Amino acid sequence: MLIREILTELTFAGSHCTKDCSGHKAGFRWAMRKGVAACNANNQSFKNGCTIAGAYQAKGLKVSPKVRDERGKFFRHPVIP
């Protein structure tokens, strides 16, 4: 029996995102590598990741935040056999 849990809301460093927060994560990684606090991208999720990176840089943090579900638990991609 395969049980699937539907997650209604995910967050990346407190910013709401959809699916797996891949846009947020990509924007965050890009901005951290470039050392920039914001970016001008067509994708809003990517922009949000850049903004989060800017806030992390301002605080001197270098570790990527984790994706959390609506209960505040760390989100792990479901494994479907």
Q: How are the secondary structure elements laid out?
A:
Layout lengths: L9 E3 L2 E3 L4 H13 L9 H16 L7 E3 L12
Antiparallel strand pairs: 1-2, 1-3
Helix pairs in contact: 1-2
Describe the protein's architecture and organization.
By secondary structure, the chain is of the alpha+beta class. The chain is built from two helices and three strands; from the N terminus they run ββααβ. It has a domain at 19-61. The protein has helices at 22-34, 44-59, and strands spanning 10-12, 15-17, 67-69. A three-stranded antiparallel beta sheet has the order 2-1-3, covered by helices on one side. β1 and β2 form a beta hairpin. The longest helix has 16 residues, at 44-59. It is globular. The model is unreliable at 1-7 and 77-81 (pLDDT under 50).
Tally of separate helices = 2
**Average of pLDDT:** 77
What is the N-to-C succession of helices and strands? EEHHE
**Bulk shape:** globular
Main β-sheet description: 3 strands, antiparallel
Evaluate the radius of gyration: 14 Å
How much of the polypeptide forms β-strand, as a percent range?
Answer: 5-15%
The proportion of residues forming helix, as a percent range, comes to 25-40%
Q: In total, how many beta strands? A: 3
Short description:
The chain is α+β, with helices and mostly antiparallel strands. It has helices spanning 22-34, 44-59; strands at residues 10-12, 15-17, 67-69.
What are the defining features of this structure?
disordered C terminus; 3 strands; single chain; alpha+beta; 81 residues; 3-stranded antiparallel sheet; globular; disordered N terminus
